[in-house]
C-alpha cells in the first residue's frame, strides 16, 4: 500500500515538487494506462487541498470518454471543443477557469464545483486525453497549479512508455 503524505502548502512549488516525487514512486515499474491513471487520480484527489474531483477523460474518436477518477459520478462523454475539458483538448493547452459560471459551455457534473483546471495529455505528439481537476472554491487554481499539474501529467505520460 502506498502512503500518501501531505506536504506543507505554504510553499506551493515545494508542494508540487514533493507530489512529483510521490507520483514517480507510485507509478514506478508499471506501464498500464488505466492502473496508472487510477493511482494518479487518487493521489491528486487526496493530496491536493480543496479539490472535489480529480480524474481523466480519454480520447475515443472525436470525443472524450470518462476514465479513472475520484469524486462524484461524472458525465461520460464530452465532444472535442465542448466544456472546459473539450476546450483544453481542442487547443492542446491547459485551461484554468477561476469561475466555472463565467465559462461559456461549462459542463456541470458536480454542482459544488466552482473552479477548474484541465491539462491536455499529449503522447508521442497525439492527444491521449485530459487530466481534469475541480474545486468547490472559486479561483482555486493559479499558474503554479497549472505548471505543477502539467509536470505531474508528464510523469503519468512518461510512465506509459513509448508504445503508442
Ligand atoms: N466541467 C467539465 C466536465 C467534467 S467534470 O468537471 C468532472 C467540463 O466543462 O468539461
Q: Would you give an account of this structure?
A:
The chain is α+β, with helices and mostly antiparallel strands and 164 residues long. Helix content is 35%, strand content 26%. The chain contains 4 helices and 6 strands, in the order ααβββαβββα. Strands 3-2-1-6-5-4 form a 6-stranded antiparallel beta sheet, sandwiched between helices. Helix 1 packs antiparallel against helix 2 and helix 1 runs parallel beside helix 4. It starts with 11 loop residues before the first helix and ends in a 5-residue tail after the last helix. The site of methionine sulfoxide (SME) has 15 residues, from helix 3 and strand 6.
Features:
164 residues; six-stranded antiparallel beta sheet; 26% strand; globular; binds methionine sulfoxide
Please give the order of strands in the largest beta sheet.
Answer: 3-2-1-6-5-4
Task: Tell me how many strands there are.
Answer: 6
Number of helices: 4
Question: What global shape is seen?
Answer: globular
Hetero groups bound? Answer: methionine sulfoxide
Order of helices and strands: HHEEEHEEEH
Rg over alpha carbons: 15 Å
What share of the residues does DSSP label as strand, in percent? 25-35%
Helical content (DSSP H or I, runs of 4+): 25-40%
Q: Major sheet, described briefly?
A: 6 strands, antiparallel
Secondary-structure-based class equals alpha+beta
Q: If you average the pLDDT, what whole number results? A: 94
